[in-house]
Design brief:
With about 260 residues, the protein is α+β, with helices and mostly antiparallel strands. Helices cover about 15% and strands about 35% of the residues. The chain has four helices and 15 strands.
Length: about 260
């Protein structure tokens, strides 16, 4: 199954200093990117809060960055601020190449996670419903940051530290590295990312609550959601200690959520 990712931008980072530059900006170890696998990265501000979750690919001597289209302008602007005198060229190339999400076709595209690949091509292909891609991303616990969730979460809250999926704890410095490392070595996140299902409508930014929480207004938040048939599939944060409690949307006990352990 192939799905057009029209909601994502593609940015090329080229120039002789591109590796050193990205290594200093992103949370993962850019040196470990292989030609057949996408590396997930956080771009953080100095307090460790995520500006964007970026999929990084290597193409010849350049790097390709895939990110939500609504964050394209602000992320390119921030990258340009930090390149200083480096030999780095940052350009948006979405008009030249098509981005497709590929489900359950292992020999097509570059591996993202689980059963999901990304295909970058100059050819326009037949595309299935993008909601099916969203559903698979949610089932694979792939967090997304958009304008409404910008600068809200540290990587640990979105499970990006687990198995170093989106964070390397052995690489050099990057914006927010001290905060992220301090949580890893000295603390434990109070909230984690969970996959939920609901029969009730939800949107990004909705609150996720439990009766037992002492911080009812901020027990958690919806980050990603899609409706398939009559079921809403959600990724959202929740206080870990209340993950076995009754969970509901927007302080409304008539709108229960169910955690799905896939």
């Amino acid at each position: 199954m192939i799905v057009s990712l029209k909601n994502r931008s593609l940015v090329r980072v080229s120039g002789k200093d591109n590796f050193r530059f990205l290594q200093s900006q992103f949370s993962n170890d850019i040196s470990k990117i292989s030609n057949n696998q996408i590396q997930i990265n956080c771009y953080c501000q100095h307090q460790g809060k995520i500006l964007a979750v970026i999929w990084v690919m290597k193409k010849n001597d350049s790097y390709l960055l895939s990110l939500p289209k609504e964050l394209e302008k602000v992320i390119i602007e921030k990258l340009n601020v930090y390149k200083f005198m480096s030999d780095v060229n940052i350009e948006e190339i979405s008009n030249n190449l098509y981005q497709y999400g590929v489900i359950n076709e292992a020999n097509t595209g570059v591996l993202l996670k689980g059963n999901l690949n990304i295909l970058i091509t100059k050819k326009k292909l037949f595309s299935d419903n993008v909601d099916l891609w969203e559903q698979q991303c949610i089932k694979n616990n792939l967090a997304e940051i958009v304008t409404s969730t910008y600068e809200k979460f540290i990587p640990q809250t979105l499970n990006l530290d687990i198995d170093e999926l989106g964070v390397s704890f052995s690489k050099g410095c990057y914006p927010g590295q001290e905060v992220v490392a301090r949580m890893h070595y000295l603390g434990k996140p109070k909230r984690r990312l969970f996959y939920f299902e609901s029969k009730f409508e939800a949107i990004v930014g909705d609150s996720i609550n439990t009766k037992e929480s002492e911080s009812l207004k901020s027990s958690g938040e919806v980050l990603r959601v899609v409706k398939i048939n009559n079921t809403f599939h959600l990724l959202g944060t929740l206080e870990i200690k209340h993950s076995s409690a009754q969970i509901f949307l927007n302080n409304d006990t008539e709108k229960p959520l169910k955690i799905i352990d896939d």
